[in-house]
Amino acid sequence: MSTQDQQSTTESLTLVQAVCEGLYGEMERDDDVLVMGEDVGKNGGVFRATDGLYEEFGGDRVIDTPLAESGIVGTAIGMAAYGLRPVTEIQFMGFIYPAFDQIVSHAARLRTRSRGRFSCPMVVRAPYGGGIRAPEHHSESKEAFFVHEPGLKVVVPSTPGDAKGLLASAIRDPDPVIFLEPKLIYRAFREDVSEEPYTTPLGEAAIRREGSDVSVFTWGAMAYRTVEAAEELAGEIDVEVVDLRTLSPLDTDTIVESFKKTGRAAVVHEAPKTGGLAGEISATIQEEALLYQEAPIKRITGFDTPFPLYALEDYYLPEAARIADGIRDVVNF
């Protein structure tokens, strides 16, 4: 359950606007919170996720950096170790690789390396995923890299309300959080969101649609498409859609309880199939609820290829029709 105050006034926001609102609320609440990255200041960010923050909080707290992802994250680690709460922006997830060593070798290990003397309360924000006709390295979905690393939390919102609440929780968390924003749905729809700051707990999945025939586990932009597929199947198959929201720590309890109810499952993600989170989720179900299983678990994913350019982008990404066909395969086994 979100701690959003249901009595507060609301505003209709897109997902990217909710990210900006989440940043604003935390920066207003806590002077130790700062934002840094390429073009996040005067320009307001490549997707305008930091629009207006520079004018409100100034250049000491909204910092335009050089084009150096390793430097951005490395600087933030030092800030976090000494009490600040930096929120770094990597313009696209495909640009995060130069900072990978800083994230996994230092941010994720600082608490254990220092035997608890230091923590690393920082957030690495990155727009991720495909669907916007971007060039190479602009459409990656490599969340599994970071889920594999102990010491990191990995969060992926799929609605404006969750984007604001999850981001606030990520900023307040004492350890590093990778916060992946599905840019395909940055401006796809609006939702009424509380104007007041609030938090949404990390590590808790959300059931977007109740169902009894099959459980479908997903996150990010694919949650939106999976609900669309489930609605298309209404009357034929009763689909339960579980939006995981946090990939590390994974809400195993919700996954297992949903599967016990339906006995069938599919996992939808846009990352390549091999080594993707669908395999981990499937293995968890096998370990925890094998005796409830009625059919093989279906993985509905991207392909084991580099993300394609424009002509094949729609074919690569799971869309509602392909998701619906995969769900039928599970139910009709």
Task: Explain briefly what this protein structure is.
Helices cover 35% and strands 20% of the residues.
Task: Describe this protein's structure.
- This protein is α/β, with parallel strands linked by helices and 333 residues long.
- It folds into two domains: 10-194, Thiamin diphosphate (ThDP)-binding fold, Pyr/PP domains (Rossmann fold); 206-331, Rossmann fold (3-Layer(aba) Sandwich).
- 35% of the residues lie in helices and 20% in strands.
- It has helices at residues 15-29, 53-57, 69-81, 100-107, 110-113, 143-147, 160-172, 221-232, 252-262, 277-289, 310-316, 320-331, and strands at residues 10-13, 33-37, 62-64, 85-89, 123-128, 153-155, 177-182, 191-194, 206-209, 214-218, 239-243, 246-248, 265-272, 298-302.
- A seven-stranded mixed sheet has the order 3-2-4-5-7-6-12, sandwiched between helices.
- The chain is globular, with a radius of gyration of 19 Å.
- The mean pLDDT is 96.
Q: How would the blueprint of this fold be written?
A:
Elements: E1 10-13, H1 15-29, E2 33-37, H2 53-57, E3 62-64, H3 69-81, E4 85-89, H4 100-107, H5 110-113, E5 123-128, H6 143-147, E6 153-155, H7 160-172, E7 177-182, E8 191-194, E9 206-209, E10 214-218, H8 221-232, E11 239-243, E12 246-248, H9 252-262, E13 265-272, H10 277-289, E14 298-302, H11 310-316, H12 320-331
Parallel strand pairs: 2-3, 2-4, 4-5, 5-7, 6-7, 10-11, 10-13, 13-14
Antiparallel strand pairs: 1-8, 6-12, 9-11
Helix pairs in contact: 1-7, 3-4, 8-12, 9-10
